[in-house]
Amino acid sequence: MTTGPHPGRLRRDEDTGRLRRDEDTGRLRRHEATGRQRRDVATGRQRRGKDEGQGGTATDEQRPRVRAFGLRTRLLLAFLLVAAVSAGTTAALTYREARTAVLRTAQDTAVSSFRDHVQQTGFSLPVRKEGMEEVLRDLARKGKPRPWVVFAEYGSLRASSGENPVSTVITPELRRAARANPRGAFERVVKDGVPYLTIAMPTVFKTSPGSVLPTGLVLYAVMRMADEQVNVDALLMAARDGALPGLAVALIPGLIAARSVLRPVRELRQAARSMGSGRLDTRIRVRGSDELADLARTFNESAGQLEGSVRELREAEERARRFASDVSHELRTPLAGMLAVTEVLEEDAEGLGADTARALRLVSAETGKLAVLVEDLMEMSRFDARAAELNDDEVDVAEAIRKTLQNRYWTDDRVGVQLPDGIRARLDPRRFDVVIANLVGNALKHGGAPVTVRLCTEVRSPGTPVLITEVMDSGPGIQPEVLPHIFDRFYKADAARTRSAGSGLGLAITLENVKLHGGTIRAGNRPGGGAVFTVEIPLHAEEAGG
Amino acid sequence: MRRARTRRRAAAVAVVAAVPLLGGCGIQETDVIEAGGPASVQAFLNREYDILLFFRSPDGGLAPVIRTPASSSVFDGYVEEGSGDQNPGETAGRVPTEKVVLALLGGPQEEDLAVGLGTSLPAAHPGGTVEVERSPGGRVTTRLPFALGGLDSTALRQLTCTIAYSQDADGQVVVELRGQDGVSRSGTCGLAPGNTGKATAETGTRARTTPPGTTG
C-alpha cells in the first residue's frame, strides 16, 4: 500500500477540513532514514547527563524514611512522660508525707508511753541488781503499741527484759545523748534490714517539789517497727497502683491529641500526592484556626497558583502546537498544487534548455522535500494532539517486515534478514511499516551496509511476551554523546550535514509510533561496531494501544 | 542528633527529679532525736532523815545515792565537832551537813560498789573534822580535813553536790571548799536538768584569808 515513490498522491479535496486524517502513508517513506548523526542545530542546547536516558543515576530521588519516632510516638511519649512525672511526683510526695506521719505517730506514742510507764516505777538509789529484771520485764509487757525490749544501764549495771543484758541495736550516739542531756530521745536504726525504734529515757527523781536530779539510770526501749514497715509498704503499693492507672489514662488524651495533629497531616499528604499525580484542583478543607489550618490554607493558595501557572503553560503549548499544525495544513494545499505543476513541467523538461531544465529539476526536488517535511510535521502534530490512532490488526510480523523491505526495493544484499516464521502480533501495519522503514533507511544512510533486521520474541519478567525487532548496521556506530538525543526532533548529529535528505523528524516519528504500540525503542552500539536499534513491543498490544 | 541530645537531657532531668522524690522507700534511719523530758521516777527520798551522797559513776558522771543513817556506824572514823545546831535555819531532825560530808568521805558501801560506783575522794583518815559555815548570802563554806590541791574535778563535784543538796533541797547554793593546804574552791552543783550551766563554775583561789592551821 505504500508504493508511491513521491508524495504525489495528495488528495485535492482535503482542504475542506483541517486535521483530516491522512490515510496515505507514503509521505513517510522517503525521509525515514534521517535521524542518525544529525548535526545539533541548536548547539547551545542543554546537554543532559550522558548516562541519563540509558537507565542511569537517580540517586537523589529516594530518601530514607525513618518512622521509628513518628509524630504519634513522640506525642504519646510526651504525654506519658508528663503523666509519669506528675503521677510519680504526687505519689512520692504523698508517700513521704504519709510515711512521716505514720512513723511520727508510732514514735511519739512509743516515747510517751515508755515515759509514762517508767514514771510509774520506783527505784532505790543506788539501783540494785536484784529485782531489776522483773521491773524491766514488767515495763516490757506494758509496751505500746506493742511489746518492746527494755534495757537498763546504771553505773556498771546492765540489765534487760530479754536474754542479752546489752542491746546490739542501741547506738553509741544515743547513749552519749542520753548521758549528756537528761532528756528523752529516740533513734531509728535499721539493722540487717529490720527497722528498729530505740528510745533512751534517762530518769530523774524529785529532790524537792520543784527540783529534780538525774538518777544516773537510763532505760532503753528497743522496738521492732515491723507493723510500721507493713504500713509504709502498703502506702508505697498504693502510690504505685495509683500511678500506673494514671499513666494508662494519660494515653487516651495522648492518642486524641496525636489524632488531631495527625489527621490534618495525613490529609495534607494525600492532597500533596494527589497534586503530584496531576490533579491540580485538589484542595484541603480548612478546619479551625491553628497552625495546621494555616498550613492547609497556604497549601490551598499555593495549589491555586500552581494550577493557574500550569494552565497558562498548557494553553501556550497548545497554541504553539495548533500553530504548527495550522501552518503545516496551510502549506500542504499550495504544495500539492506546486507538486502537480512541477511534475508536469519535469515531463516536458527535455524540450527546454539545459539550464532551465536543471533549475526545473531542482525546484521539483526541493518541492518534494518540502512536501515530505510538511507531511512529517503534520504527523508529529497528530501525535502531539493525541489524535494518532492505532488501527491494529493481527499480522504475521516476518511477512510484514519482508513486505516493507520489498516495497522500498531493499531486496538486494544490502539488507539481510533473520526472520523466523510464525510470529504473529497485533500491530498497526501502517505504523509498523513506518517504524521498520525509518530504521532500515536510517541504517543504510548513516550507518553502512550490510544492514541486518532480526526478529525474535522473549518473555520478560512480569510474564508478558515481547516482540523484539533489531536493526543493526555495519557502520561506525553512534557517538556516545549523541545517544541521548537521537530521538529528539530535528536533532542532527553531524554538524557538517546541514542539508540532509530527511526532515529531521524520522526517528521522532518512529519513537511515537512505537510508543503508540505500548513498546519501547532504544539505540545503542554493538560491541563489534555498528549501531543497533532495538524495538520492543508487547505481543498482546491491544491493551497498551488503546 | 539534636533531638537525641534533647531526649537524653530530658531523661537525665527525670532521673534527677525522681531520685530524691522516691529516695528511700521504706523506713530510713534517723539521727538521735530528742523527744520530751526525762522520766521522773520515785526514788523514795525523805529529806527528813535521808542523806544524799554523790559518788562517781563508771562513765565519769556523778550518781546520787540515798542513805538512811540508822546507826552511827555511818560516821565511823570521824570525830563529830559541833552539835549540829550550826544550821539554825534548817528543820530540826535533818541530818547535819557535817555528818553528810563525813558519810561521803566514808566512801561507797557494798551496794554501791556492786553497781560500779566509786569515789574520787581520798580514803578516810580518822581524826578529821569538817566544819560547815553558812553565810547570810546563801554561801556555804566548808573546811575539809585534807588538802584540796591534789583532788580532781570529780572529787570536787562530789563534795560540792553533796554539800549543796544537804543544805538546800534544790541544790542551788554556792559551796566554797577549803582544804588544809589553804586551797579553796567554790562553785555550784549544777546537776539539775534545768540548770544547764556546766557542772560547777569553780573559781579556784589560793586562800589568803584562812590560815592553814585553823583546823589542824
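qc> Chain B has a mean pLDDT of 71.
qc> done
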